[in-house]
Amino acid sequence: MLGKTILLIVGGGISAYKSLEMVRALATRGVRTRAILTKAGAEFVTPLSLSALTGEKIYSDLFSLTDEAEMGHIQLSRSADLVVVAPATADLMAKMANGLANDLASTALLATDKKVLMAPAMNVRMWESASVKRNRALLEKDGVLFVGPGDGEMACGEFGPGRMAEPAEIVAAIEQALSASGPLAGMTALVTAGPTREPVDPVRFLANHSSGKQGYAIAEALMRAGAATTLISGPVSIAPPQGVKLQRVTTAREMLAACEAALPADVLVMAAAVSDWRPDIAANSKIKKSVDRVVPLIKLVENPDILATIAGGPHRPRLVIGFAAETDDVVTNAVAKRGRKGADWIIANDVSGDVMGGDRNRIHLISEAGTEDWPDMTKSEVGTQLAARIAQKLKGAA
Ligand code: CTP
Q1: pTM of the predicted model as reported, rounded to 2 decimal places
Q2: Claim to verify: residue 120 and residue 236 sit in the same structural domain
Q3: Which domain holds residue 9?
Q4: 3 state SS of 65
Q5: How many domains does the structure of the chain reveal?
């Protein structure tokens, strides 16, 4: 999303204040906002607050000669990567559906060659009226995207659909719409993350310290780059990235089955710390210390190797990337792992410090071309850079 620009049209509705919060959230993601404030919108938020948050001049009058000289309505609507209407009033929907152009907002909507995302906000009876339904159907047919409205109590005291979607939801929808023009658009990615848990009995399990942070960051970065991304996650306590298809699993065998069901994919990133072994038998009832006071011996059996199975299987992704979490001889072990598992790339890292659970990572990228040592960076930066490298590789090979 870094470096993208949206054109935000703020219509007249009590929820216009939520658009201000949305602009802030977009700014932290590196998205620039240019805004058109309609006359009705200006009754709810001021040009000054919008301008302070966007850091830009606010456009509001179609016939302002200075505006037209600086950036006319055609250029305004075309220089953005996406046009977002929030709140989208019944009036703005009707104008766009029917091609009306009698103010700056409707003129920009008619002139744009970019995708338009609308976040409707209106009274429930208006939302359910025949004409709004008709206009929505027309807009959808024309390729306009929608986010919300949500259900709930409205400012007017009524209940039902009509509340504008929350800023986080709109930001997620914007990310998704922007990623449609990303370098991985049209491709599919499968990412695994987190530990697996292998049950000993109903209350105990075998697991490891993986937090899932690196895998989640990679899945999010791939999604932002435009890939339709499936994330298969072991038990972790972090929030799933919006816009990624999440499937939760517990054991290694469940993870393998979920991965196989999610194939084919263009790229696989096995960031999960899969448990190499599982107890031979998972007891059905809690193993009791008090029964015979014998310390139980847990016999372990080997789990399937998911990475090796998929790399050698019939639906091998075009690019297979494994991880190598090592405590000793990091690069040597990882190079051997790449050959043993049949992966194209291995991301090796030294986990003897506080990498597991931490927010930073220092990785080595091992490929057919040799070993690259990446500097220490955040896990999110590793995700972004890796997604860029994946795009380069897949596009080069396409
Ligand atoms: N992996 C897997 N299935 C397993 C074990 C590991 O798919 N049963 C994957 C991991 O997701 C990772 C890569 O294989 O991408 C390497 O995992 P790692 O635990 O470092 O390697 P091991 O196979 O366990 O080898 P070793 O114990 O020798 O380090």
Answers
A1: 0.73
A2: no
A3: 5-179
A4: helix
A5: 2
